[in-house]
Design a protein that fits this description.
This protein is of the alpha+beta class. It has one domain: Macrophage Migration Inhibitory Factor (2-Layer Sandwich). The protein is built from two helices and four strands. The chain has helices spanning 14-32, 58-63, and strands spanning 3-9, 40-46, 52-53, 56-57. Strands 1-2 form a two-stranded parallel sheet. The chain has a two-stranded antiparallel sheet with strand order 3-4. The chain is elongated and about 45 Å long. The protein starts with a strand and ends with a helix.
């Protein structure tokens, strides 16, 4: 069944990650009539040095 990938910057807490998991899971259960066990959610956490926007790393953007 669905495999959802969440890609974001590292540094968020377990509690924040769990809230996102709960919201995504509940949305698929409600809107697509799936069982929670059918939904896989994968987090890919990127360091600010490895993600760029407008030619600048997120680390340099956030430290300015």
């Amino acid at each position: 069944m669905p495999r959802i990938t969440v890609e974001w910057l590292e540094g968020r807490s377990k509690e924040q990650r769990q809230k996102i998991v709960d919201d995504i899971t509940n949305s698929f259960v409600k809107n697509i009539n799936l069982r929670p066990k059918q939904i896989t959610i994968v987090f890919k956490e990127n360091s600010p040095e490895m993600q760029y926007k407008g030619g600048e790393s997120y680390k340099s953007i956030n430290s300015a």
